[in-house]
């Protein structure tokens, strides 16, 4: 079990340079580079280009997106449009502030390791050194939904880009419909970008006092507008978030990442696993069980609770497999296996989330994953409401030789957990001890 598995949407290819997010000089300099690329969304739907093989995630240059970025400076904005923060205005609550325009997110830098001296961390101890030693491609992200532009205005903007003038058809697509077109490199960028723009779009007002929030640190931090140096002075008590800049940790929210345990119960022989069919899933689609981690729980606690609540099954010997970011909008799927007694009755009437749950032996699962349609997903069903546990599937299958049920593909961690067990990559001996 002590193997390193990189799941689809994981394995971020970027050096996020988090210690430089507070530098307006670095962010402005790297955003202006001709090789810098932007990933755009519209209310979470990514901008894609079309080619014969299907849609692909589109990258635009800073020059192309400049019409929607607003006036320079992009970061470290002063009170008035086109001005920088003055020396006396630069403080912990204004670092790389972007309060005059819609938030943008600095995703990181893809390092060119083919060249000698390619971005060692020692070269990036400060912003000036970083700018001088950049040999790679920086990535930023922006959601145009915050621009309050009409669909006609957005279409005109897309048509004005050099990419469109080169014959590429640009459009915003439903995010899950393009997932199977992403390679590992692009999927990692997509996952980070979508989660971060979603977090910025969802948080508009200070939870401490209700005042508007503004962006800092290249989209990785939000601050209350009452903290701006030129904010009107009132007789009201200062916003509680101001305490963050004086002592202790008083953040109401960090960039969102919701932990979800996703797990498969293995019986005492090691040759059967428990899969469930969620009531939201169409047809005969079975997957791993999953649920959000609750406050005051460890991952192992959540596995035990969720298995009992969803299927009435007591488990033990919980073992970690791997994790997967799932940007719908910002889940972190944490995969586990656990042992269970297959002779105990299954119950799906506790939290009423499952339509059914069944034990399946290895030969049955292998026949499903080796079937041409056993893990087949149609883009249509990615439009369905989905809570982040695994992708939905279109079960309109061929009338002849259809699989008895389907399981997730390996682009979802549930599919990885199922396949790794079925192919014998996960070692479980016969459990003679039984339940603890």
Automatic annotation (TrEMBL):
Catalytic activity entry: a 5'-end NAD(+)-phospho-ribonucleoside in mRNA + H2O = a 5'-end phospho-adenosine-phospho-ribonucleoside in mRNA + beta-nicotinamide D-ribonucleotide + 2 H(+)
Annotated SUPFAM superfamilies: Nudix (SSF55811)
Ranges for domain Nudix hydrolase: 255-382
MF-aspect GO terms: metal ion binding; NADH pyrophosphatase activity
GO-annotated biological processes: NAD+ catabolic process; NADP+ catabolic process
Protein's UniProt keywords contain Cell membrane: no
Keywords for this protein: Hydrolase, Magnesium, Metal-binding, NAD
Top EC class for this record: hydrolase
GO cellular component: a single term: peroxisome
Needed co-factor(s): Zn(2+); Mg(2+)
Pfam family, one: NUDIX-like
InterPro entries: NAD-cap_RNA_hydrolase_NudC, NADH_PPase-like_N, NudC-like_C, NUDIX_hydrolase-like_dom_sf, NUDIX_hydrolase_CS, NUDIX_hydrolase_dom
EC annotation from Swiss-Prot or TrEMBL: 3.6.1.22
Top-level taxon of the source organism: Eukaryota
Family the UniProt entry places it in: Belongs to the Nudix hydrolase family. NudC subfamily.
Full protein name: NAD(+) diphosphatase
Organism: Armillaria borealis
Phylogenetic classification of the source organism: Eukaryota, Fungi, Dikarya, Basidiomycota, Agaricomycotina
């Amino acid at each position: 079990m002590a193997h390193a598995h990189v799941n689809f949407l994981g394995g971020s290819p970027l050096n996020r340079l988090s210690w430089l997010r507070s530098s307006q000089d670095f962010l402005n300099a790297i955003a202006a580079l001709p090789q810098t690329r932007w990933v755009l969304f519209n209310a979470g739907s990514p901008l894609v280009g079309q080619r014969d093989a299907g849609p692909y995630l589109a990258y635009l240059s800073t020059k192309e997106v400049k019409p929607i970025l607003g006036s320079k400076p992009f970061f470290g904005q002063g009170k008035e449009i086109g001005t920088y923060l003055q020396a006396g205005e630069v403080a912990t609550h204004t670092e790389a502030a972007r309060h005059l325009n819609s938030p943008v997110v600095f995703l990181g830098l893809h390092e060119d390791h083919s060249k000698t001296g390619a971005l060692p961390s020692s070269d990036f101890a400060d912003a000036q050194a970083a700018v001088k030693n950049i040999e790679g491609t920086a990535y930023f992200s922006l959601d145009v939904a915050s621009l309050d532009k009409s669909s006609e205005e957005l279409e005109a903007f897309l048509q004005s880009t050099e990419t469109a003038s080169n014959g590429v058809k640009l459009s915003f697509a439903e995010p899950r419909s393009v997932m199977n077109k992403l390679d590992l490199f692009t999927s990692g960028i997509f996952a980070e970008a979508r989660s971060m723009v979603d977090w910025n779009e969802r948080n508009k007002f200070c939870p401490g006092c209700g005042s508007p929030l503004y962006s800092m640190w290249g989209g990785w931090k939000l601050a209350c507008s009452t903290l701006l140096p030129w904010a009107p002075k009132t007789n009201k008590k200062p916003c509680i978030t101001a305490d963050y800049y004086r002592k202790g940790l008083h953040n109401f929210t960090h960039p969102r990442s919701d932990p979800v345990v996703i797990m498969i119960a293995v019986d005492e022989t090691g040759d059967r696993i428990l899969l469930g069919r969620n009531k939201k899933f169409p047809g005969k689609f079975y997957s791993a069980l999953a649920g959000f981690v609750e406050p005051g729980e460890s991952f192992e606690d959540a596995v035990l609770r969720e298995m009992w609540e969803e299927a009435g099954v007591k488990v033990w010997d919980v073992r970690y497999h791997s994790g997967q970011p799932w940007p719908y909008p910002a889940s972190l799927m944490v995969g586990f296996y656990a042992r269970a007694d297959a002779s105990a009755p299954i119950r799906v009437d506790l939290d009423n989330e499952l339509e059914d749950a069944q034990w399946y032996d290895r030969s049955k699962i292998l026949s499903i994953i080796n079937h041409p349609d056993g893990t087949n997903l149609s883009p249509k069903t990615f439009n369905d409401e989905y809570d982040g546990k695994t992708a939905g599937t279109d079960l309109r299958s061929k009338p002849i030789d259809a699989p008895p049920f389907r399981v997730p593909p390996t682009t979802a961690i549930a599919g990885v957990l199922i396949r790794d067990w079925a192919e014998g990559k996960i070692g479980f001996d016969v459990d003679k001890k039984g339940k603890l």
